[in-house]
Amino acid sequence: MTALLALHLIGGLGIVVAGDRIGRRGFYLALAGPLAVLAWLGTQIGSILGDDAAAVTQHVEWVPALGLNIDLRLDAFAALMVLLVSGIGVLVFLYATRYFGDGAGVGRLCGLLVLFSGSMLGLVLADNVLFLYTCWELTAVTSFLLIGNNHTETAARAAALQAILTTALGGLAMLGGFIVIGNEAGTFRLSAILADVPTTTPAQIGLGLVLVGAATKSAQFPFQSWLPGAMAAPTPVSAYLHSATMVKAGVYLVARLSPAVLAVGWFRPTVIAVGLITMILGGLSALRPTDLKALLANGTISQLGFLFVIFGVGTDEAMLAGSLMLLSHGLFKAALFMGVGIIDHQAKTRDLAELPVLDGRWRPVRVFMSISAASMAGIPLAFGFVAKETVLEALTGSGIDGGWIVVAGVVVGSALTAAYSIRIIWGTFVWPSRRVAAEVAGGDGATRRAAPAPSAAFIAPACVLTAFTLVFGVAPGLLNTFAGSAQASLLLPTGRAAAHVVAHLSLWHGFTAALGLSALALGFSVVMVIYRRPIGRVIALGSKLPRGTTVYREILRTMNRSADLVTGVVQNGSLRIYTGVIVLTATLIPSIALILDGLEIDWPKWVGSPAQAVAAAHILTAAVAAVFVRRRFTAALFLGLVGYGMAALFIVQGAPDLALTQIAIETLTTVLFVLVLRRLPDGFERSHEVYSRTVRLVISAIVGSTVFVFALVAAGERLPEPVSEEMVEGALSDGHGRNIVNVILVDFRGFDTMGEITVLAAAGIGAVALARAGRRPGTAITTDADSAHQTQLHFDVSVSMIFYVMMAASVYLLFAGHQLPGGGFVGGLVAGGAIALRYVAGGIDEVRRVSPLKPWTILGAGVVMSAVTALIPLLVGDSVLDNGVAHVHVPVLGDYEVASAMAFDGGVYLVVIGLVLMVVEAFGERFVDGWDVL
Length: 934
Prior knowledge:
Layout: H1 2-18, H2 26-30, H3 32-49, E1 56-63, E2 68-74, H4 76-99, H5 106-125, H6 129-147, H7 154-185, H8 190-195, H9 201-217, H10 226-229, H11 235-244, H12 249-257, H13 267-285, H14 292-313, H15 316-347, H16 363-377, H17 383-396, H18 403-441, H19 456-474, H20 480-491, H21 513-530, H22 532-542, H23 548-570, H24 575-597, H25 610-628, H26 632-652, H27 656-677, H28 690-716, H29 723-733, H30 740-748, H31 750-771, E3 781-783, H32 793-816, H33 824-850, H34 855-871, E4 885-890, E5 894-899, H35 901-923, E6 925-927
Parallel strand pairs: 3-6
Antiparallel strand pairs: 1-2, 4-5
Helix pairs in contact: 1-3, 1-5, 3-4, 4-5, 4-11, 4-15, 4-19, 4-20, 5-6, 6-7, 7-9, 9-12, 11-15, 13-14, 13-18, 14-15, 14-18, 15-16, 15-17, 15-19, 15-20, 16-18, 16-19, 17-19, 17-21, 18-21, 24-28, 25-26, 26-27, 27-33, 29-30, 30-31, 31-34, 31-35, 32-33, 33-35, 34-35
């Protein structure tokens, strides 16, 4: 299963990188992922549908200490979702080859669709709630990029922003809920949680947060307004994401949870109420738009509400009915979206008021859209009728409190569904002929030219979906085993079902209450169509109420105004205020927690040795001098001396690796300080205002005192059994290194290091972008050196010699760091110092000659190198960052042990060098006649 996810990831990224060079041909390559999934599913279907109904599982350790593992589980219900994701995915990719031309952005969109498909596949297979959340957010990000694919359109950008804000905020709530539930249950494994759901108050709060996340993803009231806006995406995206797959993620989660959490009293009525409101509001909203995609979007909202109601009931029969409705909806809604896309592509409009006559050449489109609409309306002989009958039977026999209200609400919602289904077919294929005939009869002009008929290849994917709708409608018994197994897989964790269940589906069950309710709903829909004008006027009155989109925009506007007020105070252009806000926030908030927890200070010995006293005196003297000197450059030098004093303390305490890193970073930081200070006045501005100086003094005293107290408290809060002891013992046996510090950085805590270099790279790119703002691309600031300071030959030669020595030393530190003091970080710092020397000798041009690669290329290569090294162990079934070792024989030199962590360290090395080069590129200057004196 992980190989299938990796195939989607690699394939999607490859197609995105290829971009317009591959164009719509990328959709043929994209078929590899979903076809491989379907082939694999075919090999597993026997085991998950057999008498034993054994789920297929896979476990890959990711970050075991955090409970974040890749746990995958394929049971019958997951298989149903996999069929929707990959089966409809294949058809959508084929459809897209005819929908798109070779315009700009098509290749990128194709790659994003593949990445989305892989993310959705991971979501439905996930058996670890933290991994499920990871895939959940990946679907949100890819959906955002797909909706806003045409970034030149304001509407597309706004719709993408609304979609990701709504779903991502819900996702954050869901993450909080998962963490709370996982902590209460003692596990983050979904199947284990469902087998023994905690019902404590914190767990119920967590469940509520998870439900919020599900509601936002599946466009439930009051979060439904983002889905109609998402129709700004191209139709293949809408057919795949916003009807068949992504919007069902919330429904999928509710289906998994519902049977197991019925003991939580508020869960069932809440889910049912939200679903009923959404179903009816979505149905009413679908009766107004003339844009066919907007009509289908509102219909999708209504159908998603219907699914929430079904799974919210949570009975055995409801689980079967929900599974059937889930499959039915995917088939008919994807086909309808494809049909609308074909019409829009050929007729250049999808507005019911502007559609041309679709003549006899459009008969295949008329047929498959009519059958799909009939299935959506619940008309006999279509699969939707069978699914809806099963739903009504489950509801009438549920025995839940207020069951008649639920049935009445579903009947009203079903009537609305049938009404807008009729509206789609009537408005698309009947009304245009009458309108054009009336125009001709009235002398308003000649008929418009008929839209060109679509090709057979264009309509084939939708016809395949419609064929399944007909086959399962006429012979639903074909799904008995599959549907029964899906029902059982939802009920098994609760102990309410046997491993193997066979459903008994048929087209005709006799004259039952469910059949009567279906007829009643269809009758209501016909009445609504006949009296559509007065009903439309009533709906128009309701449309004057605040709409979801209006509320969203007002909330966004209020947040922007509030942000303007806050930033007007704390970001007013004053560096002093920036610094004050940052340091006060960083000290006061932790101080509150410290005070509430109680201060317990364990006073250490004042001085451990005379050497410590000397180093401390050096640090204090340099720090005081940095405060009182008047020149910026001098202050920077004194700050460097403070750092060297800290390095001396590290040496005294027996930490040579830390001392080496401290010395390297202080040297490089001082040089970078100088590069920046060249743009500023030579001296500090002295404020003579007593108030200003007093405020700065108070802030400094607060920050200094707080940090001092934190250090004392931290020293007294040592664990009885320090974690470091375990790391010391395992450094050689597990990490294959004798340098404990380096082993910790690139192995034991490699996940932290990966995050740190990613943040470092992002911060570096941001800082350089700000520094270069306003500068014309390809230009650099030039400095004319005074003739008295022209370049001297011996200086150039000396710098060249020192440069190569330092670079060699940096490489040595990189390779020796796993066994001796050194490592990628300190090696990169030494290399950065060498680069700074070259800059001093000849300016930015000299640095560019040394490094033929662009700084951001080196920076990105470092991040990618570390990330790939971290992920490679997954390919052989090990956990992320698992450290391998190889024994290498080097002639003359002998045998060496090479750890894979060295490659990870190499990425860190490149990131540091790339960052230094970027800073020099941003702040450096071109020396025209000579070298510039620092």
